[in-house]
Amino acid sequence: xxxxxxxxxxxxxxxxxxxxxxxxxxxxxxxxxxxxxxxxxxxxxxxxxxxxxxxxxxxxxxxxxxxxxxxxxxxxxxxxxxxxxxxxxxxxxxxxxxxxxxxxxxxxxxxxxxxxxxxxxxxxxxxxxxxxxxxxxxxxxxxxxxxxxxx
Length: 151
What we know:
Layout: E1 5-8, E2 13-19, H1 23-38, H2 44-53, H3 77-89, H4 94-99, E3 106-110, E4 113-117, E5 121-124, E6 128-132, H5 137-143
Helix pairs in contact: 1-2
């Protein structure tokens, strides 16, 4: 774990966030990665989060959601402007911002704004940018996206 993300050598996965605090979501993802090996009583990620991130969360607070895609029909300039503004507001490093291609992203309309999904990123218009090293992590992150509502 590091200040704004984690890296797992076993799964060869690195996940970082910028903008809003997504540590609770990442903790749920870490737990999910090891759930099949260690079961429901696995507390190590929670102890690490307390030590490294200074947050306490009980496993019962993890809430998996059901992402319901609602793709927008047309990616017009107004939508791109909103997403570009949200991206700038995350204050991510310039090299990260430049690597994000919003025009090629899947864009969905959610109750609380727009969500852009790329091969290696998720941008929530509410101010969350999550970067991941493996495209397969996207589904796992989407599963716990609702946990950002509590931040």
